[in-house]
Amino acid sequence: MCTLEKRGDLFLLTLTGDGEHRFHPDTIATILSLLEQAKSQSTRGSILITTANGKFFSNGFDLAWAQTAGSITGAANRLHQMVESLKPVVAALLDLPMPTIAALNGHAAAAGLMLALSHDYVFMRKDRGVLYMSEVDIGLSMPDYFSALVRAKIGTSAARRELLLSGKKIRGEEAVGLGIVDSAAYDSEEGVVQASVRLGEKLAAKKWSGEVYASIRKSLYPELCGILGLEARVFATPKL
Amino acid sequence: MCSLEKRDRLFILKLTGDGEHRLNPNLLDSLRSTINQIRSDPSSSQSVLITTSDGKFFSNGYDLALAESNPSLSVVMDAKLRSLVADLISLPMPTIAAVTGHASAAGCILAMSHDYVLMRRDRGFLYMSELDIELIVPAWFMAVIKGKIGSPAARRDVMLTAAKVTADVGVKMGIVDSAYGSATETVEAAIKLGEEIVQRGGDGHVYGKMRESLLREVLIHTIGEYESGSSVVRSTGSKL
């Protein structure tokens, strides 16, 4: 399902196997626990890189599981459960005392794209993989923290419109142009991961305090932190 | 400390001397009283402010050594800078920062609190150093950053990589309006821009009110919600 590896300064979180890496409650719980593990083992110079195997980074929530609830109410409850359970994962990433990089090996849709956007840096492939907010196509409403994340990370109203309202499947080059990802210059899964590792090593060399890093990161996104119940450090008590 | 020169309709405020122009309580008081002097000048609403400095530094931020010897002074300096920035935001005239040296942390915030930022490209950088020196960033600093830097990726680069932003990079990021070959050219360009603005005419009181509403979020963080909406506190003697 997912693994956490440590390679020197780098924590590598991988959604394993060839499937769509849909977020079932168990997947979400595992991701959360692995993030907590990375946090507990973090030191100055730690970096997190999140990636996946195969054609998909993640295709979002496990809607099939929601539907097997057997009733409309049951399905809605299960969907609501998954939406609520991903919030602590986004919070954990915002709170993580180290720089975070999402290395998109493939498609990232809906909640899967939200997981990616919860990272400080996002790299994707040029040749494969699309970003897709499917909600407008399948008639799902947008959770408040999804919209807040989009507002926090995507700067132009045209880009936000393209992402949320057009049902477009956005490929690498366009994603860079819209400011959704940092770079899409890579032609393979290895390429994206290597680029992430290179950036990670550059950032790791600064040996920043993880606590200070996380605090400054949270203060960059006060609206999102408010929705997630994360204290964004309102008062200045600097270590002078 | 600081000097004030009047050239026709231009007020030229200079941080004087060859030091780092650290924003200690004395310099902050001096700056605030000079700004008040400018505000009460009869020609203020048809004028332009240019802020510049001598030497290698625009300002290297708060006087951290002073705060270390007397921790209560860090609160004092923060309060005084907040008031100064609020004064700049409500000032009934356009403001230009002619950045001819390094501007770090609080010094960078001071530069960015001007309507136009002109900067030399041959030396010097803008540097939000907090991540490197392990200072937490106050929420009101973030409000200035958010108000003045439009791209989420640029904000991340400034705050989460402690980037040393030279003028040309600053122009690309949208932090700096234009870059010049030397300190002299930068100041000359600021004067030229100031004169063009004066030529355009317009009522500085209206300008100041417009700027307050544009930077409302920053005002809320610097002087509080109640006061920012009150025309009693920020009376500009409107001509209606």
How would you sum up this structure, described in words?
Chain A: It catalyses: a (3Z)-enoyl-CoA = a 4-saturated (2E)-enoyl-CoA; a (3E)-enoyl-CoA = a 4-saturated (2E)-enoyl-CoA. Chain A: One of its GO terms (molecular function) is delta(3)-delta(2)-enoyl-CoA isomerase activity. Chain A: This is Delta(3)-Delta(2)-enoyl-CoA isomerase. The complex is a heterodimer of chains A (240) and B (240). Chain A is α/β, with parallel strands linked by helices and 240 residues long. Chain A is built from eleven helices and ten strands. Chain A has helices at residues 25-40, 63-67, 72-95, 111-117, 135-138, 144-153, 157-165, 172-177, 189-204, 210-220, 222-228; strands spanning 2-7, 10-15, 47-52, 56-58, 100-104, 107-109, 121-125, 130-132, 170-171, 183-186. In chain A, the strands form two sheets. Chain A has a six-stranded mixed beta sheet with strand order 1-2-3-5-7-10, with helices on both faces. In chain A, helix 6 (144-153) packs antiparallel against helix 11 (222-228). The longest helix of chain A is centred in the middle third of the chain and has 24 residues, at 72-95. Chain A starts with a strand and ends in a 12-residue tail after the last helix. With 240 residues, chain B is of the alpha/beta class. Chain B is 50% helix and 17% strand. Chain B is built from twelve helices and ten strands. In chain B, the strands form two sheets. A six-stranded mixed beta sheet of chain B has the order 1-2-3-5-7-10, with helices on both faces. Chain B has a four-stranded mixed beta sheet with strand order 4-6-8-9. The termini of chain B are far apart. Mean pLDDT of chain B is 93; it is low at 226-240. Chains A and B meet through helix 10 of A and helix 2, helix 5, helix 6 and helix 7 of B.
Residues in β-strands, percent of chain A: 15-25%
Assembly level = heterodimer
Distance between the termini of chain B: 39 Å
**Number of helices in the DSSP assignment of chain B:** 12
In percent, how helical is the residue content of chain B? 40-55%
Structural class of chain B: alpha/beta
Average pLDDT of chain A works out at 94
* Spans where pLDDT lies below 50 across 5 or more residues of chain A: 234-240
Describe the largest sheet of chain B: 6 strands, mixed
Tell me, briefly, the overall form of chain B.
Answer: globular
- Spatial sequence of strands, sheet with the most strands of chain B: 1-2-3-5-7-10
N-to-C span of chain A: 45 Å
**Integer average pLDDT of chain B:** 93
Uncertain segments of chain B of ≥5 residues (pLDDT<50)?
226-240
Tell me about the largest β-sheet of chain A.
6 strands, mixed
How many strand units of chain B?
A: 10
What is the count of helical runs of chain A? 11
What order do the SSEs of chain B take from the amino end to the carboxyl end, as H and E? EEHEEHHEEHEEHHHEHEHHHH
- The helix fraction of chain A, in percent, is 40-55%
Strand content of chain B: 15-25%
Radius of gyration of chain A: 17 Å
